[in-house]
Amino acid sequence: MEAREAVYKGVCRFYGAPANLPVQVLNLPPQELRLSMPSLTRYRISGDNAAERSPEPLLRSNALLATGVCAFILKLPAFRSRSSFFFIYIYNSAAVKRPTLWSSSPGDGEAIMSLSSADSWPEGSAGLEDESFARDSGATVCLDDSLTSLQWLQEFSISAGGGQVAPLSAQNQSYVGGHLRMAGPDAPASPMAADPASMGTPHTPSKPTSAAFCRGLSPSALPGPAAYGRCPEDVDYKSDPHVKPPYSYATLICMAMQASKKSKLTLSCIYKWIKENFCYFRHADPTWQNSIRHNLSLNKCFIKVPRQKDEPGKGGFWKIDPQYADRLLSGAYKKHRLPPVQINPVLQARVKPAPLALSGFFPAVGGQGTLSVSPESVQLLQDFEQATGADQNWDPSLSSAASRAGKRCSRKRKRTQDRGLKYFRRCSSPLLSGDEQEGLGPLKGDFDWNALLDPALTGELSLDGAGELSPIGHDEDLMVHGTRIGRPQQWSPLETSRDGEENHVLSQTQETSLDFDEETFLATAFLQNPWQEEDDDKREQNPQVDFLCSSAVNIEQLFDLSDDLSNNISSFF
DNA sequence: ACTTGTTTACTTCATT
DNA sequence: AATGAAGTAAACAAGT
């Protein structure tokens, strides 16, 4: 089955639309996509989460979207009380990715989206100046604005010449000076292949010694986007075993969780992700794992999710507590210190300071071989770092001061007390079941971090405070290469036969509670290709998770997940 | 035996 | 100097 059909069916299923609606598909060849819309206010570039979305449209007129990326447009016809609407999917030859653009406003009835080849667009036209977009004609990609967009953007590798789109595994990415580098055709296919320590240059980093790498700037003096990641000497953390990444353990954990796309991660998966993405930890003394565990236990931002009794495997799962995401977003925490960077003393002299530790994670705009990340994304992770550290001593009995003062207290006794406190805290998480969270207020309406922290767990979806759903789509016409494509006869119909059971995900009234962005995200979440989390033996026990990591979209599996999403949403309401 | 999780103690460094 | 954040080390318990 063609991927586009799978996408369409998945979308139909999600929206409760009959799958036999005459779908209209327009295939777009590999090309640069440039969007030109009279009204841009209703268009957004979607991140994988609401928090990544700017209140202002990130898309500028004539913005250059990508180079050599295939795309197709699906038009979902009107059904029931819905207007028709469009989805635009960007994809490569192997897998369909989530939509990156959509139209969502009735006020944009006149909106016309035109997609045209790069040849017809002069260099430096409007949009290129926008930090959300950058053109890159080499083997690397500068795309998009959102942190989480990296999850799907990293799947693309654009060749320099012919606009070929080659699948790029997540392993072809690496943090370069903290930048996510999109590897070119010659890049090693595996992180181990890029690992000097595994290529005959054995090196075991010394026990980390503190060395300032990114110090000297006040956190409040955050540079603008253009200043991020301007490390003169890029450090590829994925392949460089010498330099300890300039991220706190909490940040590393967060990154692993965020990258995984899973609602929760096991400890071993966190280890795995860190080792795969930061060479330093592949060779470092394993005591860092102790620190990870220490951080998970101590840091209030992380919640332990016990394994089900019938669930095989060792240990529980970990997730980020949205309560703290909420707090951090409200600006309750202030960061006092930048995470230090550990560096092998031998190489210390070679590595020059970066402006900020965080700047490593948020690359420079338009830099060669880096991805562009918006200031909003920068702020998000900064906020996270603030929150993960600033509140460790929430409970006075757990504060370091109290700890120091109480050194002579009985260890056993303290442990018992603290466990009780921790248990109470975790039970009061809004993530937990109704019984467990009794007495807790609802999440705030504008709490978008849920989507970021837990994109697959729809039960944690935020709702628009206003409860307003932007009517999606409408019947605006699309213009491609100057040709109006909105009329049915210009679309190639897809056979869509399967819709045996009613599977309405949301009733109409329920739908109105969901922001369209959330809705679209949910409808397309299954299209993503998240980082592989489960161990091999675990996958054998749960084969349905495999498709998430494979490049091919299996329609049956897709529907299964769609069902899961539906159930989650239904239970949420 | 090993992994996972919790806790305490301590050190280092930055900020106030 | 005091304080706090972050990291390191280690003891210990529980589970697989």
UniProtKB/TrEMBL annotation:
GO biological process: cilium assembly; heart jogging; heart looping
Domain Fork-head: 244-338
Record Pfam families: Forkhead
Chain positions covered by the region annotation Disordered: 186-209, 390-417
An annotated Gene Ontology molecular function: DNA-binding transcription factor activity, RNA polymerase II-specific
Cellular component terms (Gene Ontology): nucleus
Cross-referenced SMART domains: FH
Name of the molecule in the record: Fork-head domain-containing protein
Source species: Scleropages formosus
Gene name linked to the record: LOC108939864
